[in-house]
Amino acid sequence: MTLPFVLPRLLPAPSAAAYIGVSETKLRELGIRRRVLGGKRLFDRLDLDAYVDGLSFEGDEAGNSCDSLFGGSG
Asked: Among residues 8, 9, 22, 52, which is most buried (max CB within 10 A)?
């Protein structure tokens, strides 16, 4: 019997960073809150999705909201 692949909802920093495509250092700078499970601090995948959903798209009139994070000029 083959078990289905399940993406965990709570992710440690290395997995959370990979999930949204940034380094662990950048992930910690983004200010996304972590949940506490026992002694572990984990990122909720739904919070990561919400953060990414809030980013603007390249070419939007208002500029890209992550320009200040990554050093872009709009």
From this structure: 22
pTM of the model: 0.73
CB 67 within 8 A of CB 57: no
Euclidean distance between CA atoms 24 and 26, whole angstroms: 5
Segment 28-46, tens digit of pLDDT: 999 999 999 999 999 999 9
In the chain the beta strands, taken as DSSP E runs, fall at 10-11, 34-37, 40-44
Give the contacts of 13 (CB within 8 A, at least 6 positions apart): 24, 27, 28, 41, 43
- Find all residues with CB under 8 Å of 42, minimum gap 6, and list them: 10, 11, 12, 16, 34, 35, 36
Rounded CA separation 65/54 (Å)? 9
Neighbours of 18 (CB within 10 A): 13
